[in-house]
Amino acid sequence: MKVVFALFDSLNRHMLGPYGGTRIPTPNFDRLAQHTITFDNHYVGSMPCMPARRDLLTGRLSFLHRSWGPMEPYDNSFPELLAASGVYSHLITDHYHYFEDGGATYHNRYDSYDFVRGQEGDRWKAMVQPHWERLREMYHERQFSAKRRDYKSQHIINRGFIKEEEDFPSVQVFQAGFDFLDLNRDANDWIVQIETFDPHEPFYAPKRFKDKFASGWNGPIRDWPRYGRVDELPEECEELRANYYATVALCDSLLGDLLDYFDRHDMWKDTALVVTTDHGFLLGEHDFWAKNRMNMYQEIVHIPLFMHDPRKPSFDGTRCGNLTQTADLAPTFLDFFSVQAPAEMAAPSLFASLKKPMREGLLFGYFGGAVNVTDGRYSYHCYPADLIRQEINQYTLMPTHISSFFTTEELSNATLSEPFQFSKGVPLLKIPVIERSPMNEHYGPGAMIENDTRLYDLVSDPGQNTPLDDPAMEAEMSNLMACLMRVNEAPPEAYRRLEIPVPVADSVAT
């Protein structure tokens, strides 16, 4: 068996042709759907970027126990489990968060890796004295910074070295993928992960893609929206969205190159292909930009997934409506190579979900925010009464945030917890969350603008415009959430912070 896994970042499901999108032509995603099973009810688990990837590698949710951080010593990872069975894994990525403190244990799980430099705030190009005043004129004031070790200032420096189409990191990622395939496609027992940061913000695409979505904007570069409420002028909003559309068009084109490669080398008969993303991105829906600040709306959490299995060509062009989520990918990659999933890998394989529904519902969320649950018909978003003063702890042996260690102030109150089943008998540091934690204002409790518990009917109200007032259904969804939390070994305070009882016994499929 051979597997190609293509992973995009912040790719909106509802904008793709196979899911009914019409705003952006996506002819290559349309082609992809003809060769794959399209999953209609695929969801995120832990959010945002690196928590999603920890779910993806380990096959279990992480947001109930810690925030953005590294793989832990007790974590299973599908690349290492495959390696133990003689299957080679290779990672190609321009997702620079893998190489910061909070992600630095991920890439080493693969047999080899290739890091393409230059995306967003990647500390790539060194310029001691940039021409800040000239650059200030080029960039909109909301995406300009001259502060060192700032994502925006580093991006401005990096961008000066990304001019021709072949300079773009995503283009280089896919080219590196083709180089891997040229060298290895006739070998057996390998998986290659071709992963690009696009269409994640800033929305910077080659000119030929941008020209297709010209908004008439004549101001400075405007392609990086804030995380939060929309307060820009209408023409600014249109320019921001146009740049996202252009970057999605770039991704569609790169996918087309991959499909052409499969066609040219007749790889459909012996090579699996999986294509997905980590999460979506709000572009003004619900009066918000981005993620991390608001309720976990469908635009953010309901994500695309396509899978081709060369052993089952009759499945090509079909659809699956059963509930699935990001964590299911780890056991699926093991399944491709007939490798047994360990007990700690709580998620089911996608192959099992093709045969019958494996879940009555699924959980998703940010560490410290709401615990969210859906059964496919309803979505319930349960917040603690006080996000800032809630009882919540980080459980970890790797105390780092995105780009820093836990502070000594955070660590000063750490204790050792009893082991969880998934920690394989190892006690963990239990670290109380404090307001001054570096994660708090970026993707933690202090970042949230919306924080009220809500219930939505996704059939009668797919846009999630009007929360339901239905105490009976809310109680049913709360019970489903509590049962799923128990299956995922939520710590005792996770129930107290939401003011829900610990269920006595499991009655829910995982």
Summarize the structure.
This is Sulfatase. With 510 residues, the chain is of the alpha/beta class.
Task: Note the topology.
Elements lengths: L1 E7 L18 H9 L1 E3 L2 E2 L2 E2 L1 H10 L19 H6 L4 E6 L18 E4 L16 H7 L12 H9 L9 H16 L5 E6 L11 H4 L17 E2 L4 H31 L6 E7 L4 E2 L4 E3 L7 H4 L3 E4 L10 E2 L3 E2 L3 H8 L13 H6 L6 E5 L4 E4 L3 E5 L10 E4 L11 H4 L3 E2 L12 E4 L21 E4 L13 H17 L4 H7 L12
Parallel strand pairs: 1-7, 1-9, 2-13, 3-14, 4-15, 5-6, 5-7
Antiparallel strand pairs: 2-12, 8-11, 9-12, 10-11, 15-16, 16-17, 17-21, 18-20, 19-20
Helix pairs in contact: 1-8, 6-8
Structure description:
This protein is α/β, with parallel strands linked by helices and 510 residues long. The chain has 2 domains: 358 residues, Alkaline Phosphatase, subunit A; 136 residues, no CATH class. The strands form 5 sheets. An 8-stranded mixed beta sheet has the order 6-5-7-1-9-12-2-13. The longest helix is centred in the middle third of the chain and has 31 residues. It is globular and about 60 Å long. The model has no long low-confidence stretch (mean pLDDT 96). It comes from Phyllobacterium endophyticum. GO terms for molecular function: iduronate-2-sulfatase activity; metal ion binding. Pfam families: Sulfatase.
